[in-house]
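Action item from last week, closing it out:
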Amino acid sequence: LVKNLSLHHPDMDDGQELDAAELEHIIGFTGQELHAISVNPQDTNVMLYGIGHVVVLADQTDPHKQDLLRGHDNDITSVSFSATGKLLASGQRQSIHRDGEQIVVWEYESRKPVYRLSGVTGTVTALKFSDDDRFLAAIGEGNMNGNDFAIWDMQNGSVAQYVKCPKAATAMCWGVVTVADNSRRVKTPKYSLYTFHTVKVHAHYLEYDIRTMHYGLKTELLKFPSAGLARTYHDCSLSPTNGELIAGTSVGELVVFNCDSLVYRAALPISTNGVLSLCSCREYIFAGSGDGKLKKLQGNDQYWSVVGEVQLHGRVTSIVPVAASGELVVGTDTAKMYSIGCDDLSVRLMQQSNVSAINGVAFGTRSDHFATVSQDGILRIFDLSDYTVLGFTRGSCAATCLCWTPDDRILTGWEDGAMRIFTATNCEPQGQIPKCHRGKVTCIAVGKEFYFTAGEDGAMRVWNRRNLEFVGQYTEHNKPITGLLVDNVHAHLVHSCSIDRAVVTYDLKTTRRSNYKMHRDGAFTGLAQRVDSEQELLTSTTDGFVLSWDCDVQLPVMALDCGRKMKFSCVAISSSGQFVAVGCEDLCVRIWDIVAMEIVAVCRGHSGIITQLAWSPDEKQLVSVGDDAAVCVWNFYLAGGPPPSTAGSR
C-alpha cells in the first residue's frame, strides 16, 4: 500500500538550485550587531549586510535586485567594503564546525570568495579595510584572557601582523596613510591603525622594512590624564579635519584625541544608554545612541556642539555615510533601516523586518500581499511589489500562527491562548477570543460558518463566525496539534494532525470523530490536502517523509522522501494541487511535482529551521519563513502547467 519514492537529484550535491524556482528576495536584516551595514563607495546604490549565514548585496533602487553570497556557517556579525569597492569582507560568529576562517573576502564584480582568513579568536566584532585596499584589519571577540586583532595583506591573503591583547580591543579604525620617509628615493606608505581597549588606546604604525622585506608594526600608547579613563568603546572615526580621533563610549560620551600628539583632549557627554556608532560625513560627526537618537555634531578639540538630532526606533547600531548623495544609511536593533539626509536630517524608512523567529505566513485572495507573525508578537502585512509593510501591529506576547480569511480578515493565534482578529488592510483589531486554549494556539482554520482553533493542549475547538461564541470541542489528541484544515469537498469535515503521530477527521454533523490514522515512526509537523486524485491528506513528518492518507485506507498510500534522513518541519500544497513544498532540516525548501513524482526545486536561503510555507494563489511565488527571522520569496516557474486530474472524489 505504500509507494516509497526516494528521489535524489544530482544538483542536490553540488549546492545548485534546480531551475524550477529561484530566490527573488530575502527580508531579514535584524540590526542586532554593530557595524552590520556597509555601502559600496563607487556604487552607492549597493548596500552590504548579513541575514543569518548569508551575505546580501542589495540595490536600493530596485528591491527585486539582490545577490546572495554563501560562505559562512554561522550568523554574519560584521561587513565592510573596501575604499575602491572592488573587495568586500564579511565576518561571522564563532563557528561550531571548524576552527578559524571566520572571515571571507569577496571580489565584488565576480561575487566569488578570494580569501578565507584565520587569525582572530571567536566572533568577529569589527572589519576595516585600509584606504588603499592593501590591508584588512579585524578584531575577534576573544575570551576571558583578552582578545586579538590581525592585519592581512590583500595582495596574497597572508597575515601581515597579529597582536594579542590582554585587555580586549572593542573598536578600531584606520588613520591617514602617509609617506614613511620622504628622504628615500623609493617612497613607501606608512599606515596607522588605532585600537581601543578598556583603559588604553593604542596607535599602531605599519611600515615597510627594506632590511626584512616585510611590513613591521610599531605601537605607541595615547596619553591620558594621570587619573586615567576606564571606558568601553563601541565605535570610532577620524574627525572631518583628519587631525583628531573620535570615539563613542558605553556611558554616552564622545572622547576626543589628537592624532599628531597622541594625547587625550576631552570626554563630552552627549547621550544616554551609550554611543554605539559613529561616522564622519562632510564637516560633521554623526553619533548613534542606545536611546535611539542620531545626533549631528560640529566642532573640534574640546569644543563640540550638537547642531541637530532625530529620534529613531531602536538602538542605533550602524551608521554608514553615502558621500555622493549626502545621506546616511542607518540601522537599528529593531530591524529597521533608514536613509537620513546629512543636511536636514530628513528620515526615510528603507526597510523593516523581524528580529525574532517568524512562526507563520499566509496569503489571502490576492497574490501580491502576504502576512507574517513572529515570536516578538508582531503581525506584518507585506506588499510583494516592493516589499514594503502595509500593516503592522504588536501584541503583548508571542504570535504563534495565522490564517487569512476569504473576507479579508486575519485570524492570529497567540502564546497566551487567545485568538485575535485583525483587518487585512491596516491591521485594525476586529475582535478576540481571550482564552480559547490552555497554552498557546498552534493552528487556525476557517469554514463557512465556523472558525476552528487547535492548541498546545491537544484540543480542537469550534467557534461561531458571527459572534465568536463557543460551539464545541474535540479532544482526540494528547499532544500539541501541528496541522488543521477544513476538507476541500465536504465542509462538515475537519482534519488535524499532531505530534502524537495521529491524523484525525472530525464530522461536525455527528459531532464525533469519523476517521483516525496513526503513524508509528515519526510525529506529524504539518498538514495539507490534495485537490486532485482522491483528495488525500498530506502530512510532513519528523522522520523525513511526506505521507499521503486516503480516508478508506488505514496505511499511507504514498510516501515521498528526498533520499536523505532528515526532519521535515512543514508542508504546503499549491493552488493547483500539483506541487508540494516542504521545509527540510538541512534548511532547504524542496518542491515536488506530485503528479510526476519528482523533485523540481531545491531552494537554499534560510539559516535556521523553516517554520512555515505559503503559496501565492496564482502559484507563481512561494514564501518561506524561519526561526532565523528571515522571509524568503521564491519565484516558481512551473505555474500554469496542465492541471492535475480532479476526476476522483470521496
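Closing note: The mean pLDDT is 90.
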